[in-house]
Amino acid sequence: MSQNERNKPIKNQPKMTQVFTKLIAAAALVTAAFAANAQTASAPITGNASTLQVTPSSTTAYKVDSTILLDASTNYTGATVSINGFQSGDVLAYTSISGSGITGSYNSTTGVLTFTGSSSALNYQNILRSVTLTSGTTSGSKSVAFSIGSALTYSGNGHYYQFISGGNSWGTAKYRADTMRLYGLHGYLATITSQGENDFITNKLQADGWIGSSDDYKHINMATGATTYANQTASEGHWYWVTGPEKGTNFSNTNYGNSNNFYNYDNKAPIAANGMFINWNSSEPNNYKAGVWNGENSGEIYSSGATGKWNDLDSTNSLGFVVEYGGMAGDPSIALTFTRSIQYVAVAVNGSKPNSRYVTAGTARQTMDTTITVTGVGSIGTASVKINNLVAGDTLSTGTLPNGVTAAYNAATGALTFTGTATATQWQTIFRNITYSRSNASTTTRSITFALGTTGSYTLNEFFTANPLALTWVSFDGRAVNENAELTWATADEKNTATFDIEHSTDGASFERVATIAAKGTGNNTYDFTDINTANGANYYRLKQVDNDGSFQYSKVVKVNIGKETAAATVNFYPNPAKDVLNIATTGDVMVAIFNMNGVNVATQEVNGNGQITVSNLPEGMYICRVANANGVLQNSKIQIIK
Question: How does strand 497-505 pair with strand 512-518?
């Protein structure tokens, strides 16, 4: 590979005698060092197997597992804690133990917390139990892996991985990896057989390093235990894993290149052997070394530039290397990692109060919504209740608050802000007991938003304040009469009542005024109204009672079911809008009746085929034309009279 392809100098190949001397010296040093530091004792680790459910919060540090248990029969020299599903902003923290000899370092790029230092099992157990996770995750799940020793575990195969930094030729790296042990597990230069494994190594180790691949015929023959290739010309471009459980496995064939400048070229991209996983960088492997198209026979993995991709490289280059543990014959069955799953449960706040409700002005505090529900897990903070479109004098108050929770109301902003944390059940009680008050009426439409955590929010829409109304509702009923809705209601103790607006809806939520009836103003009274402009199916009605000072209140909602048939005759009205006469065209004998918007019949005429109704005497406005045939089937149409 050329220097233009990688901004990294490539050392010239030293003489074979120099290489041999360096290898012997390195081997002696490595043997002594790793014999002294080999981790061979059994060191199982266990913890809470249940999923930890937490509320999303970018500021709350959740303790991952306070039940971590280590084998107390041995001392430990290191441990790692890593985040699976790591995202930028995730933080692992811990509480240090004075005098323990353990130091910790968190890598915010990889999501790995590394502990070093020789200490007792109890000290390591306590420091692992203190680990907390802070994350901006708002939903879904991730996990945290606690590993004994200096290696990280990949859940996809249960193997452990460690990056060894420093300058090593490929041969030295292979030798060093072969001598390494992790609590009895044999080490070897990593063999990468899946995209998941490749991603794990790339994301967690963060450095260019040697891996256990080669197309050198000598290493291939040693790995296969046979004379698979007679010379380098024969083996060139045929890549094998020559370490670990996959030792002797061919995974890639052909070099990338052309006849003009490649040694033993194949003139095509590499091909995976037998369906094996490969992840070569673009135009690799190319067998290019320092201007010579020959001599790159060892594999490396990139952590920068072409992150996670593979490259063929001269084995005398100086790199770190990736050690893998696990899967070798004779390895002990040992649990060096415990993983705690974490699920993020979003906070939800909901209510069921209808829109357009009034609150009576006065000194009494009134609850706003006693149906509010709050769902979530654990301790939840960051709560507020706020009046939108605030009117000076509006006040929010709380009921009794749980220990650790306080509240402060800002009259200038209409915000009631809470400090402290509580459970979802406690917040539900707090929200249900929020009260509103003001001393005088205001018809300005406001709303109140209940917010909790980073995701929970519910807004009670369109409330306003009114003076106490001098009226008692006795009854309000509705029934279907043919295809009309007949409404009746009764009141008691009327004082200064002005009007009743009859409002109609087909969904029970969005209402429109269909008529206004004058109130009798005093005493006990009964009223009725017939709506002829009904819809087929469900019809909802409510009354808006208005006082002389503009204050008003709503009645309950009544439902009237109307069943309509399809008219046998078709009727057309024109022109619409009409000024003097309304022309009627029909396919049968019908009776046409015109009603104003208060339900009063203002004109009636029988029509056979074509006819006219004089409308010049009617006031300008909207009207309903009701058509009935001999079978009593009705058709209602809206027309406009203009002047």
Answer: antiparallel
Do residues 527 and 500 lie in contact, with contact meaning Cβ atoms separated by under 8 Å?
Answer: yes
Task: Say which CATH topology domain 472-562 has.
Answer: Immunoglobulin-like (2.60.40)
How far, CA to CA in Å, does 258 sit from each of 254, 255, 346, 451?
11, 9, 57, 65
Q: Report d(CA 92, CA 195) in Å as an integer.
A: 26
Domain range 572-641, its CATH number among 3.65.10.10, 3.40.1350.10, 2.60.40.3110, 3.40.50.11540: 2.60.40.3110
Taking phi over 0 as left and psi of -120 to 50 as alpha, with beta for the rest, 143 belongs to beta
Q: Where are the beta strands (DSSP E) in 277-404?
A: 298-301, 310-313, 319-325, 337-344, 348-350, 357-360, 362-367, 373-375, 383-388, 395-397
**Topology (CATH level 3) of domain 167-326:** Mannose-Binding Protein A; Chain A (3.10.100)
Q: Strands 52-54, 337-344: parallel, antiparallel or unpaired by DSSP?
A: parallel
Angle at 175 between CA 169 and CA 179, to 5 degrees: 140
Reported confidence tier of residue 447, pLDDT bands at 50, 70, 90 = confident
- Tell me which DSSP letter residue 422 carries: B
Domain boundaries, the chain: 45-153, 167-326, 348-462, 472-562, 572-641
Measured distance CA(564)–CA(593) in Å, rounded: 18
Q: Tell me, yes or no, if the two domains 167-326 and 472-562 fold the same way.
A: no
CA distance 240 to 191: 10
CA distance 424 to 437: 26
| pLDDT tens digit sequence for 558-605 | 999 988 754 455 678 888 888 888 888 877 777 888 888 777 888 888
With vertex at residue 160, the alpha carbon angle to CA 317 and CA 79, rounded to the nearest 5 degrees, is 105
Question: In 3D, which of 171, 125, 139 has the Cα closest to residue 297?
Answer: 171
Whole-angstrom Cα distance, residue 179 to residue 181? 7
Residue 325 has pLDDT above 90, yes or no: yes
